[in-house]
Amino acid sequence: MNLLLPNRKNREIELKKPCSVWKLLRDLEINPETVIVIVNGALATPDVMINDSDYVEIRPAVSGG
Amino acid sequence: MKCVTCGEPAIIDIKRHNAGFCAHHFIEHVHRQVERAISSFRLFSENDRLLVAVSGGKDSLALWDILNSLGYNAEGLYLHLGIGGYSDRSQQKAEAFATREKLTLHCIDVQKETGFSIPGLAHRVRFEPCSVCGTVKRYFMNRFAATHGFDLILTGHNLDDEAATLLGNLLHWQMGYLGRQSPLLPQKTGLSGKAKPLVRLTERETAAYTVVRGIDYIIEDCPLSKGATSIGYKEALNMLENLSPGTKHHFLLGFLKRGKALFPGDTPQLSPCKNCGQGTTGEICSFCRIIEKAARNDSD
Fold first, then answer.
1. Considering all CA atoms of chain B, what is the largest pairwise distance in Å, rounded to the nearest integer?
2. Structure pTM?
3. So what's the ipTM on this one?
4. Mind listing the pLDDT tens digit for each residue in B135-146?
5. Which residues pair with B2 in a beta bridge?
6. Which chain B residue has its CA at the smallest distance from A46's CA?
7. Shortest CB distance from A33 goes to which of B204, B222, B225?
8. Whole-angstrom distance between the N-terminal and C-terminal Cα of chain B?
């Protein structure tokens, strides 16, 4: 799976089986309140299942300054 | 997850409302929250001339889009702050949105106006860049609104911004600031009124709104804001929000409804700055003092 992380860096992760958005954020230790998740260009809720062929963007929602 | 309104697949979950929404009903939810803020805090009316402070980021572009959708007549003001490529890229986003929506965007180049970029000013006066930036933005927004007949300046401050400010003011017992914190700052001597219509929406909601509406915004943070205290306050509040959804909403809106009255609402006496005429507590406003100091240090 191709992943764009909140720090805007790309990462390749191999998913052996489909996993939910909720589990992905938990495994990456990302607070779901601080991001929106976009799977193949569409916003995704925590229960959406992600496959290895998907492009997933975890976009930061918190801006500062 | 299903949309709480129509039962179609949801595109976003909002835990504090214990709800999911499809794209159509999410847009409706966002518009409703802004309308509630406008009416409950009596921010402005359809007859007011509104100026949106547009940064090219998600909040200000979402705000401009929402106001436009709700039928308000709002023009935009972009300030090019001279923060390298970041300022160029954010201006491009603001201009692209204005062109797409056929809205009027005014642009001011701070470096052309003052002779200094924000990093250059901050370096010369040896102040924190965010503090200098805030002063410069306030000056140009006030000046533009006053000279072009706008009734109110609108900013994209959201629930997270305001909750973080409240936390900071409480942690430092800033009694005067606590008494004045409000989504509406009325017009004062030499200063335009300001309003924050996104006060009932979280950053996550405004970010999601821009995606649903296809608004291209600058995602990267300002390079000068790294390590800003407000980001730490937001992290702390989001940790609490994740443990107990609704915390930020109750913290901020509960304060505005019940807590604020406990703090003195003393308003500093303002008089026109002897240089520029904008409202100030002293003889010379902080913007003019910064520019004078930078010019002095420049010639040393």
1. 68
2. 0.95
3. 0.96
4. 999 999 999 999
5. B9
6. B13
7. B204
8. 64
Give the tens place of pLDDT for each residue, A23-59.
Answer: 999 999 999 999 999 999 999 999 999 999 999 999 9
pLDDT digits (tens, 9 = 90+) for B1-26: 999 999 999 999 999 999 999 999 99
Chain position carrying tokens 């179609």: B8
Q: Which of A8, A38, A64 sits opposite B234 (nearest CB)?
A: A64
Question: What does the DSSP assignment read for B183-239?
Answer: SEE--BTTB-EEE-TBTTS-HHHHHHHHHHTT-----SPPGGGTT-HHHHHHHHHHH
The residue assigned the tokens 């939810």 is B29
Interchain contact B65–A (C-beta under 8 A): no
**Locus of tokens 């927004």:** B141
The per-residue pLDDT of chain B, averaged, comes to 95
Strands (E) across A1-65 are located at 2-4, 10-12, 19-20, 35-39, 42-43, 49-50, 55-60
**CA distances to A28, A32, B2, B56, B220 from A18, in Å:** 16, 19, 20, 36, 30
